[in-house]
Amino acid sequence: MNTKSEVLKILEENKGKAISGADIANSLHLTRTSIWKAINELKEEGYKIDSSTKKGYVFSGDNNKLSGEGILAYLGKDLGDIKVLYKDRVESTNKDLLELAASGEKDIVVEAASYQSSGRGRIGRKFESPEGGIYFSILLNMRGVDFNRITIITPMAAVAVARAVEKLTKKSVGIKWVNDVFIDGKKICGILTQASIDIETNSINSAVVGIGIDFQLKDKDIPSELKDIIGTIYREDETPLISQNELLANVVNELVYMYKDLTNKAFLREYISHSIVLGKEISFDLNNNHMEGVAIDIDDNAALIVRLQNGEEIKLNSGEVSIKISK
Prior knowledge:
The protein is α+β, with helices and mostly antiparallel strands and about 325 residues long.
């Protein structure tokens, strides 16, 4: 980590508080001149840092730029080593981490970006990544994990998002099976889990969980045909009460805590309690057949149990279908 990054991490950890250049220099074992240069570089990049001869430096509470240092400042200290990468623009954070997994990476890695040019959703759909969103992926080591447990990772991530958003914003969240998070009837988050497979042993090497959260989208960036569908946590004219870094890190914290005990499926109770699908009439296509029914339950493997119009009950697995709520 270079001097600028180290200084930014300290400022993030002391957001809204005055900290002297001497204290920063002492903690990093650097000169005050090098700290001064790093501060000026950060200001030039758009970070709001107030300087005072008597008080020192104050990192403004309304700084809301994604950064690796900012994410690290909010990660749980008991989670162990987590590598954090930040890129301003990428094709896809999932693509990057799948390539990293293929190279043999065994640690938990988070990659965040402010913009994706080729983001993907489920079933090959394009995932739009407008400015004002938080786009990140988490690489999880799954070696030795039963193949069937991969199905619970996406619901686990949805619960992680729900927990973080509700805790930090006090807004009520709903989850549409299997991977969408809603606020006030509009989608504010989509999740895509992809696995790295060892073909020789037919086992999972790792899972990459991609998460896109609409943090504060501009109205002009939401296509007119999607305005009734796509939402955003904070409106364009609102002042966010939290930073993007804080929200992202809290989602990672929640997901990693659950991931470390994959045998514990207690989180599914939260997943079910947040469901906006259960009890609703839904429609979906399965095996080239259009079907309708009522969503009645979610089982221990996060499959959706549907009672069809003829009374038959079937299970839908996350990789098979996309559903629409009829009413």
